[in-house]
Amino acid sequence: MNHQKTRSMIVEDEPEALDLLAGLLEATGEATVVASTTNPFEAVDLLLLHTPDILFLDIKMPGMSGFDIINEMNRLTGLTPHVVFTTAHDEYAIRAFDYAAFDYLLKPFDPDRLAETLRRHKSQVNGTKTDQLRQQSFLNNEKILIFRGVTGVTFIDTDEVVYITADGNYSSFHFISGRVETVTALIGTIEAQLGKQFFRTGRSSIINTAYLARIDMRQMACVFIRGDREYRCDISRDKVRMLMDFMKNRFSES
After folding, report:
1. What is the rounded average pLDDT of the residues 171-193?
2. Is the model's pTM score more than 0.70?
3. In sequence order, what E strands does the chain have?
4. Is position 28 within any domain?
């Protein structure tokens, strides 16, 4: 069994918060703090010097944000530590995952939540298959999409999406389970992030062709069937031929 401690680094502009996080990390018995700083401008140099396994990085700091540090690290070094963003502001969550964050911790820190982050990190490093799949689902944007929803941050597993409809600045994901999630995003923005099985059927709709059963030419609708449940999504007349060609090409490739 591997008992090697996780080498951690902290960048936090508030000394009290830095000391608290360092104490919580050491108290788990699973991590050791090899470097820390309250000065964000020192962060990249410390990263190069200590090469930590995991970087706990405050987002909102004077003069240089956590995102700025990641940009600088990517530009100047070949280091790829797992980054855990720390902040008191949950509105940064979507942007944090855009930066391929390993995790996102809110202040004040929850010791149990921190311990779970370290366990998940160690599991991935040790090659635990279950955790690798979980991490892949967060970082592979063709499968998992992250948007600001009506009540908070929404995670969308695109494998479960049957179709998407749009209404102005809002888009609704319709899932195979019957669940609907509405997010604040233009349908064009969503389309650019989807996998190749998705097809734009009109100005305000996208379908997952993996679930397509037939095209109703009388009502101009795509029909999806799962068990005894039927779903329908409108398609514009000029898109029908394009969809048929799309499906032919898809089957010929498989």
Report:
1. 88
2. no
3. 6-11, 31-37, 54-58, 82-87, 103-106, 144-148, 153-157, 161-167, 170-175, 180-184, 198-202, 205-208, 212-216, 221-226, 229-234
4. yes
